[in-house]
Amino acid sequence: MKILYLTPRTPYPPDDGGKIASFGLIKYLALRGHDITLLSIAPSYANNISELKRYCRVETGMKGTSNSYKDMLLNMLSKVPYTISKYHSKAFLDKLRKVVRGNHFDIVHIEQLHMAYYGEFIKKEFGLPIVLREQNVESTIWERYYLEASDPLIKFYARLQLHKVYTYESKIAAEFDRCFMITEKDKERILMMNPNVKASVIPGGVDISYFYPLDIPIEPYSVVSVASIEWPPNIDGILWFVNRVWPLVKLKLPQARFYVVGKNPPAKIKKLAKKDIIVTGYVEDVRKYIARATVFVVPLRTGGGMRIKILNAMAMGKAVLSTAVGCEGLDIENGKNIYVADSEKEFAHLILKLLQDECERKKIGEQALKLVIELYRWDKVAEQTEYEYKNILGTQK
Question: Could you write out the three-class secondary structure of the chain?
Fold first, then answer.
């Protein structure tokens, strides 16, 4: 079938959860024989996107979407959430109209709530079937951010945005022919917000042809976190881990080292760097850091959706320790294929256990790899997505 695929950012390079989720699905839908045209608002910063072009026609680079304090303040007078309005673009709308008129698409796939405005437009002007894939329930992210905020001004702004996002999300999600939620919990949340939403669950996936156990020596007593560190929940999680958990680890294992791997670390994260805390910034290939690490940690306290980075680490056979929020929505079993802890004392205790117990690390890593292969391969996710498309179009046999 011919698919028009809209994303807020060009999903290449696939170096964070959102872009990995888009690129992976595009790639494996294309491998199943579908004809995909991709339109993205924000351009890629990669010099070469030829790998992306193997799987779809690419139209990109219409608008910058970085936050602006001026626009954030002006948005206080608007009913539309700032995280949505900053993606509104007349130039992109004109381009979209031209592309739709010049093709005969069977279905339109909208990636993330930020782009839902364009799906609603396509439905009204062209009558095409539209699906919305929510990588997170955005109002859940804002609710958790609001509850964790301590600065009064930030808390006030977060509460204002939470109200706007909740109102917007609960209404517009029901306009789509199907809303793909990434976890069962997210499906429950969106249906609680609006029972009229036609929701299905399609999880994120992992490319096991790229993420797999590598024959690289493990650095003893090393801990790694991989994340896009420009995202506020990731910043909060790293600060909590370094300030509250890491000192407890160092009391028992002074030789332990922590690697913070991810693009665009802000100044407050860069300042953490010292002999035993390495802040790498952007790296071309995260696999060598994951493979070399003794333990992979996900210290998230806010956020929503599914953490693709956990699936990547599991696919490489690593023992993962996460908060409950960090591994939310994954079909995991604490103590079998992952460790889960929320208090700093328990988190530190489990890190120490994994750092010092090779047999336990191996057991957890092997079960994690088995789980990924059984449930979270991209080819299975693409097959499930295709099945949903056909149901919408009435062509499923």
Answer: CEEEEEEEECCCCCCCHHHHHHHHHHHHHHHCCCEEEEEEEECCCCCCCHHHHCCCEEECCCCCCCCCHHHHHHHHHCCCCHHHHCCCCHHHHHHHHHHHHCCCCCEEEEECHHHHHHHHHHHHHHCCCEEEEECCCHHHHHHHHHHHCCCHHHHHHHHHHHHHHHHHHHHHHHHCCEEEECCHHHHHHHHHHCCCCCEEECCCCECCCCCCCCCCCCCCCEEEEECCCCCHHHHHHHHHHHHHHHHHHHHHCCCCEEEEECCCCCHHHHCCCECCEEEEECCCCCHHHHHHCCEEEECCCCCCCCCHHHHHHHHCCCCEEECCCCCCCCCCCECCCEEECCCHHHHHHHHHHHHHCHHHHHHHHHHHHHHHHHHCEHHHHHHHHHHHHHHHHCCCC
